[in-house]
Design brief:
This protein is α/β, with parallel strands linked by helices. The chain has two domains: about 15-35 and about 305-410, Aspartate Aminotransferase, domain 1 (Alpha-Beta Complex), CATH 3.90.1150; about 50-305, Type I PLP-dependent aspartate aminotransferase-like (Major domain) (Aspartate Aminotransferase, domain 2, 3-Layer(aba) Sandwich), CATH 3.40.640.10. Helix content is about 40%, strand content about 15%. It has 14 helices and 17 strands. The protein has a seven-stranded mixed beta sheet, sandwiched between helices. The protein has a four-stranded antiparallel beta sheet with strand order 13-14-17-16, covered by helices on one side. A hairpin with a 4-residue loop joins strand 11 (about 265-270) and strand 12. Helix 2 packs antiparallel against helix 10 (about 290-305), helix 3 (about 70-90) crosses helix 10 and helix 4 runs parallel beside helix 5 (about 140-145). The longest helix has 20 residues, at about 70-90. The radius of gyration is 22 Å and the shape is globular. Mean pLDDT is about 95; it is low at about 1-10. Bound molecules: ligand 7TS. Ligand 7TS binds next to helix 4.
Length: about 425
Amino acid sequence: MSANPDTVLTTDLDIDALRADFPILHQEVNGRPLAYLDNAASAQRPRQVIDAVSHYYGSDHANVHRGVHTLSQRATDAFEGARTKVRRFINARSDKEIIWTRGTTEAINLVAQSWGRPRLGEGDEILITWLEHHANIVPWQIVCEQTGARLVVTPMDDTGQIRLDEFERLLGPKTRLVALGHVSNALGTVNPVHHVIAMAKERGVPVLLDGAQAVPHMTVDVQDLDCDFYAFSGHKMFGPTGIGVLYGRESILADMPPWQGGGDMILAVGFDETVYNELPWKFEAGTPNIAGAVGLGAAVDYLDSVGMSNIARREATLLEHATRVLEEVPGLRIIGTAPGKAAVISFILEGIHPHDIGTIVDHEGIAIRTGHHCAMPVMEYFGVPATARASFAFYNTEEEADRLAEALVKTREMFA
Ligand code: 7TS
């Protein structure tokens, strides 16, 4: 069953009309029209999301879950309504499985501390991959330090794909959890998560997917994936910053202790005994990011109206075009060439530091990211300190990719 009954199934997207929804895209930067190609770091928001947040603050704001007064009820309805939208969007079974967090990073830390810390001990292993964002490395290193468990890393090949033979070999009797990215932020590789999950399930090992780079670009169905945890961020899927989601299988979440204590996560507090709240609120201590959740609900509505399969198709076309024009730039080498990858192009230009590339193309109004992309092991593997990275969203155009290619040719000429 699909999580996203796409409303637009067949026609090509009207990119001009969609771009009109994003006010920030219509400006000049350094005297040139902005070409925003840094969507993997953070995407932009459509007016529908901005308006939902603004409406919430302008009309409905109060604290949630605690007032009988009208505004508190409205705020609670909006907050919990957004949870239901997200639940439907990723096809989770129950709202109890949707935990609001600050983002992917906090979601993974929650699992490391609440699921991992009480369970892990000397000699246990957490199996990750070489392709992970630091958010899916460091929380595990911390819990390993706390418990004596060990981090085991699946290697990758020169195209940026994980070595499945090695994964199978490393998935051993000591593996307690597999944690891997659905889509790599540094290279765009779409990992064979169905295959990986099937192998882990065969051995009874739970799986966490870091979906930060997948949810904005493809249909994600957690029941179809059959993963145990799925983490993602609002700001990469056209929603607000400071809000994200941890999906967890209800039976597993029910067995986990809270990781932060405070208001809202309790039913009753006494000095001798405290009774924790039910799911999902057990994991949501303190006043949450209510406006963020409301905005994320609006982002989900927006994505549904565009259609995730339309978005995936559009981005594949853009990637093909952008790859072709960038490959024509003399001295350019693309890092990460896995077949079927997402619309992320990491590259280096012979003899030019990526930071210089980023600065020069910014003069042309083009926003790309340069650096290690919070994936230093990936950089180390390819023997580069950093790359330049263009990452696309459905609202980007072929013309923007052409402008990037032209700016890179100019950059080369400046350094010749
Ligand atoms: N996991 C992946 C795969 C990511 O790409 C990112 C952010 C995170 C986790 C962390 O997400 P956060 O919202 O909690 O910060 N990636 C990037 C990036 O590629 N450039 O800047 C942030």
